[in-house]
Model the fold of this input.
Amino acid sequence: MDYRAISAQGPALSQVNADALVVVLTPDLAHTGDAALDRLIDDAVKAQDFALKAGKTLYVHRPAGVKASRLVLSAAANAEPKAFKAAVAKGLAAVKDLGAVHTAVAAAQGLALTTAHAQALALAVADATYVFRHTKPSAPKAGALKKMSLLCAAAEQTAVKQGLAQGEALAHGVTLARELGNLPGNYCTPSHLAHEARQLAKTHKHIKVEVLERPALEKLKMGSFLSVTNGSAQPPKFIVLRYQGAAASHAPLVLVGKGITFDTGGISLKPGAGMDEMKYDMGGAASVLGTFRTIAELQPKVNLVGLIPTCENMPSGTATKPGDVVTSMSGQTIEVLNTDAEGRLILCDALTYAERFKPAAVVDIATLTGACVIALGHQHSGLFSADDELAQALLGAGQESLDTAWRMPLDEEYGESLKSNFADLGNVGGREGGAITAAVFLSKFTQAYRWAHLDIAGSAWKSGAAKGGTGRPVGLLTQFILNQASAGAAAIQPLPAKPAKNVATKKVASKQAGTKAVTRPAAKKVAAKSARRPAAGRA
Ligand code: BES
Ligand code: MN
Ligand code: ZN
Done:
């Protein structure tokens, strides 16, 4: 798609050279300043053919006095980017299957266009024109639309241009995430995700990729991750992506994406109804790959690491059984009470692996719990973090990119239910507060750095007739990274380096004495870290 910012306002609108013109109006801003268009609008409203109510559109073929042969009036609730995006989407729906090659969008007189409006437009276009064809070649091809223009004031042109460019790059990342999500489990295997990561590195010189295979994972002692892959014939992969846009000394942001390419539940088998949707259980991984694509195109001055533990969760004679105890890379042992709580089992080892990058912050993204869908529905992703500054940065990025998250609690007390008689941790709490206990489980592996967790179980895909990946939260993550890149000294800084051991540290470490864990140096390390900085419930 070719995106243009064209300076045209008022009387120039009816003379714009395009095949279709979409005019976005609001209840308060119902005119364009173009006589022919305004006459048409007033007439349509008077005749009750068009109402200035969000969601309403009117298509006019060969409108009198207008050069474009197709005109759509589209009503937005207000002038905000979110409402503008919805109105553009509605307008496009009316013309996208027609013959128009070049569609221009105009905003009502007085509707000030910003970077955010332009970015929203590019995303609406990508959304309207996306078709999944990979395993359905008979699906109708994307329409004739090749060129989109946003008509703006001369003074708005720079901002609009920037928004369109950013929106286009974002649309590429979102589309990649959607496509990978939609790809069935027999196509989108762990090996396929590794292939996609390598493709990214091939096409973008700022991206490097490394794929760790089973022997390397065994050597790293990722016993928790590997336990999930036991029942599967597909080899597990651990994908490490790196984007370097700043000096090597600059602490990176680390994104960790859950990459379960199919979640049957394992021996704790899921019910059959709707199980096909568990192909989307690699939505976190897809969002990391999508974000890397967008960031590689925009090239902000920031360093980024992406970690994707990926495997299938299958039942078989070799699968992990309920009650099995596994040893994570951190040294903490885990009683696998339910093999369907596998996401946290692969993420915890990736979170331990993340320590080596001495990150400024780590954000994991996972379709982790059905409980999060019950709590928040499909509107917001769930955000969990004990770090207020990081949480605010992510929430703000969500608002800016119209890819929102809602903060959830993370008190240590929720972890009570994770106690086990046979291991350091059980992998499930009760049904109550299931999204929170899952987050508290992960927090036990994140003591070394600033960390936030995004549960995208409700936001990564849509069910029903419109079943399909959403590409979320590529928008939120990208905005967060761009904001961090431009924040300079105000950017999130890594936790201070570990202080010399003090009495308190020793005390907690010795509390572990007599348990199995103390024999492993890594376990000692975790205990020492929690003494230095309690994870949850901290302001
Ligand atoms: N991938 C699922 C979470 C999920 C379920 C996302 C439904 C979207 C819709 C995850 O691996 C899972 O199965 N979680 C369990 C955890 C439970 C066993 C504690 C769940 O949510 O039921
Ligand atoms: Mn599961
Ligand atoms: Zn899962």
Notes: Residues 157-182 form the longest helix (26 residues). The two ends are 46 Å apart (CA to CA). The CA atoms of residues 157 and 396 lie 25 Å apart.
